[in-house]
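Supplementary Note 3. Input sequence used for the single-chain structure prediction.
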Amino acid sequence: MENSRRKKEYDNLFKIVLLGDSCVGKSCVLVRFADDDFIQNYSATIGVDFRFRSLSMSGRKVKLQIWDTAGQERYRTITNAYYKGAEGIILVFDLFKKQSFDNLDSWLSEVEKNGKTDVEIVVIANKNDLIAEGEIPEVSPRDIQEFEERTKLKVHLASAKSGDNVESTFLSLTGTLIEKHQP
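The predicted structure, written as C-alpha cells, is reproduced below.
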C-alpha cells in the first residue's frame, strides 16, 4: 500500500548503451556525464558497468540508465545482450586512433543486428582536448564529414577530460528520446 501512494520518481526511464572499441574513453565519458568527474587512468571495463542519472527536461523527470560496455572482442557475446531494450546508443571513438573510427561500421552492424529497429544513435569523437594541446588527430574533419553524410548520424566532438560537449551530447539524445516517447 505504501508504494502505491508514493509519487512516481520519474516520467521516463531511458536505457542508453555506450559502445566502441577498447580504450576510446567510454568509461570516462560515462563518469564525466554521471558524476562530473574525470579519472586519468581508468582501467578497462570487464563486461559491463552502469550508472544512473536523473534530470529534468522539457517539463519531465527523466531517469537515465547508462550502460558502459567492454570494447574488447572477447566480451561481445556478453555486451550484445545489453543492446536489447536500449532506446539510445552512443558510439564512442578516439580521434587519435583511426582504427576506432574505422570500426564504427562494425559497431553499427552490431546495433542493427542486436538492437531495436528504432534506437536513437549518436556518435562521440572523444579526446578533442588534445587538439588544443597541439596533437594532430588521425581522424580528419573530412573523414567525419563523409561518415556523417553516409550514415546520417551526427558526430559530436567531445572530451571526457575537459567535459567539452559531453553533457550537451547526452542532453541532445535525451531530448530526442523525450520527444519520441511523448504520450
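The mean pLDDT is 87. The beta strands are 12-19, 48-57, 60-69, 88-94, 120-126, 155-157.
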